Amino acid sequence: MAVRGAFFCIVHQTWKNGNGIFNFFATRNRLGKQDRYFRFLQSEAGRENGSGIFLFCKSEQLGKKGSAFSIFAKRNRLRKTGPVFSIFCKEGQAGENATAFSVFYITEQAGEKGNGIFNFLHYRIGGETPQGKADRQDRLFYNATQAGKMGNGGEYNELKPITGGRRMEHLTVGEMTLYWLDGGVTHLDGGAMFGVVPKPLWSRKYPYNEKNQIELRTDPIFFQLYGKNILIESGIGNGKLTDKQKRNYGVTEESQIDRSLSAFGLTREDIDIVLMTHLHFDHACGLTMPDDTNGYVPSFPNAAIYVSETEWDEMRHPNIRSKSTYWKENWEAIQHQVQTFKEEVTIEGKVRMVHTGGHSDGHAIVMAESGGEKWIHMADLLPTHAHRNPLWVMAYDDYPMTSIFQKQKWIEEAIRDNAWFVFYHDAVYRALKWDTDGNMIEKVEREKMPV
């Protein structure tokens, strides 16, 4: 038993401690011995607690913490901290400690909270790249592909972007945080957007300009899940629309996706998944971008693009009505990335896409549950908060009766579940909740600030 500078090891793993409390030596089939301060366990024995200090486990088991600190050991498993500190080590990654914080990271999992203050280091292939750190106020950290958790309360927050002094709008639902990127803005005729609803009614719900146009954002929703960077929708794109198209569709701003992603330390190449509710031009133009040969290349070359099978078929074979919104410039370059589904698909075991039809024959919605909370993106079945009434459907809808029935079903279910409604187009609200009487009870407003 060493008095100070203790050291102990298990096969394939090594920890080090300078607290002067213990010393632990192990062989493949024997895990040490005990004195009056603690106990060690033999490889075939069950885990056991010492005198309130710590627990050890054999090489293929996960340990548990004692009252002062803990050492955890299992290959490819997440290590956690005790109330004072822990040291973690894995091949290819290093962990260090001080008396009040921990540094930790595992390839496929995010670190969890220490004693309220921690730093977060990530070893990328080719070298060490510190990707974020935290202090008592922020307690946030991030890297290009994975997210940590907050200390001092344990709330989840993957990223904290800084965009030239403008705070990016976001919504935290359980352990997921949704961010709205800058995808551009359009202005479409209010009459077309509200169909048969008279202007004296809809104009009390949503602002319009002197041309009778309403502002419609095209802002992709970004979040991280299990180390994957995910987008819902792709924005209006950049450099793809002619002057005539910009005028007809009221496009006053094109996408600034690169700038938005750079706030997280990401690029387009870091996007792993794109969820497309449908492929109308105002949702799909951002999927491709012009190259130097007057052609188009994928905007997110490493991403799997999910869309319903029905929508993908019509995108490539539009009819006399839909050919004005399904453009080959938006699908030819990305066809090798597309993954289709018939009625429903679950992404990363958490996010559901459900085929609804209505707005288009292949239209789908997106929803998820996290930490006992829910959110739903009804896309163009519910393009803005002003379309809450199931009967208020757009003249753009190919199958308006389907839209009505699907709206009624999913809005009622989401309200019953106290879910957040999140929007791609709404120029007033990013997200909101309604009660059963149709009253808005929570909201995330869009900040109309100069960039």
TrEMBL record:
<dbReference type="InterPro" id="IPR051013">
    <property type="entry name" value="MBL_superfamily_lactonases"/>
</dbReference>
<dbReference type="GO" id="GO:0046872">
    <property type="term" value="F:metal ion binding"/>
</dbReference>
<dbReference type="Pfam" id="PF00753">
    <property type="entry name" value="Lactamase_B"/>
</dbReference>
<dbReference type="InterPro" id="IPR036866">
    <property type="entry name" value="RibonucZ/Hydroxyglut_hydro"/>
</dbReference>
<comment type="similarity">
    <text>Belongs to the metallo-beta-lactamase superfamily.</text>
</comment>
<keyword id="KW-0862">Zinc</keyword>
<protein>
    <submittedName>
        <fullName>Metallo-beta-lactamase domain protein</fullName>
    </submittedName>
</protein>
<keyword id="KW-0479">Metal-binding</keyword>
<dbReference type="InterPro" id="IPR001279">
    <property type="entry name" value="Metallo-B-lactamas"/>
</dbReference>
<keyword id="KW-0378">Hydrolase</keyword>
<dbReference type="GO" id="GO:0016787">
    <property type="term" value="F:hydrolase activity"/>
</dbReference>
<feature type="domain" description="Metallo-beta-lactamase">
    <location>
        <begin position="217"/>
        <end position="425"/>
    </location>
</feature>
